[in-house]
């Protein structure tokens, strides 16, 4: 069976080489932006080479009213908890360990997103040959699905764990309960991508068997 080359049964395909280049450029730009703003800048903040993260949004059970203000707040150990149910945990001068714990969820999430974008970019490059149904793309889709599944677990767990570590040994630990809320959207997306990867795998195998009969 011949590969799709941009024309099928005399009809020109809507996808062109220009479209392929634009897609690769868009994915490349996304990789650059995520790498800079999601990994590089937070890492520089952890190292103290630029302003670090100093705030974490948390779910607070209760807080102490501060006279003369309109918000609730608890202070101590170089940190302040302000707000009611959805509160901000603010560090006045976070040390290296605190900076790392504050930035870790964003850095890990961005690294996983970079992996997904890199795999999509490699898939987009196969469009230049006019055929996306290749075994490599089936493997890439499976890897993307597994990465999304890992992200679905880590996205809620990492902030909860790092917040617990940040507050360990302080009176504020009683104000912020350990809470993890999982959502089904990422899990559903992961299984959809894994199913698509299986479709690609079966499609490429079927085509290879068909070509062997010709």
Automatic annotation (TrEMBL):
The membrane-spanning stretches of this chain are: 21-44, 100-121, 141-158, 178-197
Coiled-coil region(s) at which residues? none
Q: Alphabetically list the UniProt keywords.
A: Membrane, Transmembrane, Transmembrane helix
Task: Please indicate if the UniProt record lists Cell wall biogenesis/degradation as a keyword.
Answer: no
Entry superkingdom: Bacteria
Q: What is this protein called?
A: DUF2975 domain-containing protein
């Amino acid at each position: 069976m011949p590969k799709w080359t941009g024309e099928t049964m005399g009809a020109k395909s809507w996808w062109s080489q220009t479209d392929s280049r634009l897609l690769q450029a868009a994915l490349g730009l996304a990789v650059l932006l995520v790498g800079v703003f999601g990994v590089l800048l937070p890492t520089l903040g952890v190292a103290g080479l630029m302003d670090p993260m100093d705030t974490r949004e948390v779910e607070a059970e209760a807080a102490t009213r501060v006279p003369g203000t309109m918000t609730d707040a608890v202070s101590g150990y170089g940190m302040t908890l302000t707000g009611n149910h959805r509160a901000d945990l603010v560090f006045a001068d976070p040390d290296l360990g605190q900076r790392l714990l504050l930035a870790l969820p964003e850095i890990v999430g961005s690294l996983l997103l970079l992996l997904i974008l890199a795999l999509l970019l490699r898939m987009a490059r196969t469009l230049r040959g006019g055929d996306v149904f290749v075994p490599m793309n089936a493997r890439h889709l499976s890897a993307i699905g597994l990465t999304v599944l890992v992200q679905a677990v880590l996205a809620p767990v990492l902030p909860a764990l790092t917040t617990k570590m940040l507050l360990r040994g302080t009176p504020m630990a009683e104000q912020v309960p350990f809470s993890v809320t999982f959502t089904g959207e990422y899990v559903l997306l992961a299984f959809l991508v894994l199913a698509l990867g299986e479709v690609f795998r079966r499609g490429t195998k079927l085509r290879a068997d068909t070509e062997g009969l010709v």
